[in-house]
Write a structure and sequence with these properties.
The chain is an alpha/beta fold. The protein has three domains: about 10-60, no CATH class; about 95-305, Rossmann fold, CATH 3.40.50.300; about 305-405, no CATH class. About 35% of the residues lie in helices and about 20% in strands. It is built from 15 helices and 18 strands. It has helices at about 10, 45-50, 95-105, 110-125, 145-155, 165, 170-175, 190-200, 260-265, 265-275, 295-305, 310-325, 335-340, 350-360, 395-405; strands at about 15, 20-30, 35-40, 60, 65, 75, 80, 130-135, 160, 180, 205, 215-220, 220-225, 245, 330, 370-375, 385-390, 395. A five-stranded parallel sheet has the order 9-10-13-8-14, sandwiched between helices. A four-stranded mixed sheet has the order 3-2-1-4, with no helix packed on it. Strands 5-7-6 form a three-stranded mixed sheet, with no helix packed on it. A hairpin with a 2-residue loop joins β6 (about 75) and β7. α3 crosses α4. The protein is elongated.
């Protein structure tokens, strides 16, 4: 009879989920770090490597589950194997002075919200959070360092993707992560932004790996985007509430050891965040209110992303309300078409105009055809009034001003 010359730690490298065996491996990365992976492993290979009796020592579970937790982690939940990885840090009393200074650089006057964001990530990993975007056209701002710091904190529960990774149909590598970072983000297509928005508030998602059937899983991913493009790295529509966009300034001094210094303070940061009380309370599905995470950088992206037609409509409305000193303006799609014709925009599709008014601006036409004051633009550019009937839209001047910001 063969001797059992293997250790219990060797058998713990393997698990059986249902009828399939897996092996825990550490994949080396170019950074020198390792990524823990669970790979299917045949029973025949295990017997060849360790002997037939080794199989009986391998832990057996009914299936996989995905239960994120950092402070009260359980690898086995019921008789299911938790695919969420253990939190790799223990809190240690001390003040993370360099980290707090760095976070103030990232979050600026929104530092308290930034600290709340990190505390929620650690203590409430299932809570939906805004899509955090760090942008700057300048170099040496520390954007990528932020991603790398979070990767050091959350380990295998975070991934840093490329644009192509995000677009790929094969998403199993990142669908189980609590943080999904995208560096050098440029997701300019409409389908990219729609997918990103939908995922940011999704509770279930279909994960797909090569050669495997798609599986519906619980989804808890939070997206963090970094980009050198401040204007149109992603499409953001007016009224969008899911993005927290911050423009990051250049660091006051170049410190090649910044990341290693921040990593040393991680135990202090964990202790500090646990000890610190939240400065906010949950006020929306993404915790923060739209007003709390509003920034000039967000307004800039919205302004730059609006198509030419939308910007032209907003501009004409501003011109009319300013010149006529109106508190509100009533108009129909045909009026808008006439205004833009006067500005040289010919052969306009009324469907495109209506889509902007109803989908982008959330306006609804009057239920019935009623009389209203129509504003027309003469050949010399002057604006005159006429009485007309139609199913008009209504905008107040405050909203017109916001559309032109």
């Amino acid at each position: 009879m063969a001797e059992n010359n293997y250790s219990s730690s060797e058998s713990m490298q393997y698990i059986r989920i249902g009828t399939t065996y897996y092996k825990t491996v550490k994949k080396p990365l170019s950074s020198g770090d390792f990524m823990t992976m669970l790979l299917p492993w045949s029973s025949e290979c295990i017997k060849q490597d360790h002997g037939k009796s080794f199989l009986s020592e391998i832990p057996k579970y009914d299936g996989f589950c995905f239960v994120p937790s950092h402070l009260d982690y359980q690898r086995i939940v019921g008789n299911f194997y938790n695919r969420y990885y253990p939190f790799g840090h223990a809190p240690k009393e001390g003040k993370p002075e360099k980290t707090l200074a760095y976070l103030e650089h990232i979050f600026g006057d929104q530092l308290e919200y930034g600290l709340d964001y990190l505390k929620i990530l650690i203590e409430k990993p299932t809570q939906i959070l805004p899509i955090l975007c760090l942008v700057s056209s300048e170099r040496n701002t520390g954007k990528t360092t932020f991603l790398n710091l979070l990767k050091a904190i959350f380990g295998d529960n975070m991934t840093i993707n490329t644009n192509e990774d995000f677009r790929s149909n094969f998403n199993a590598e990142w669908a189980h992560k609590v943080i999904i970072g995208v560096d050098e983000t440029f997701l300019e297509r409409r389908e990219d932004s729609e997918r990103l928005k939908n995922l940011s508030t999704a509770t279930f998602y279909k994960a797909e790996a090569k050669g495997q059937d798609r599986q519906e899983i619980e989804f808890f991913g939070k997206f963090i985007l970094c980009s050198n493009n401040e204007d149109n790295f992603v499409l953001v529509d007016p009224g969008e509430t899911r993005y927290w966009i911050r423009k990051i300034p250049v660091l006051s001094k170049d410190n090649q050891n910044l990341l290693s210094e921040l990593k040393k303070e991680i135990p202090f940061l964990i202790y500090y965040l646990q000890d610190r009380k939240l400065s906010t309370h949950k006020q929306s599905r993404m915790w923060f209110t739209t007003q709390q995470i509003a920034t000039p950088a967000l307004k800039k992206v919205i302004r730059q992303n609006r198509n030419k037609l939308e910007a032209e409509i907003a501009g004409v409305l501003m011109t009319i309300t300013d010149e006529k000193e109106l508190q509100e303006i009533k108009f129909c799609v045909g009026d808008v078409q006439d205004w833009l014709n006067r500005k040289g925009m010919r052969n306009l599709d009324t469907i495109a105009i209506r889509r902007i008014l109803q989908n982008s601006w959330n306006l609804k036409p009057a239920d019935n055809s009623n009389a209203y004051t129509q504003y027309k633009i003469a050949g010399d550019g002057s604006i005159y009034e006429a009485m007309q009937k139609g199913r008009f839209y209504v905008l107040d001047t405050k909203t017109v001003l916001q559309l032109n910001e």
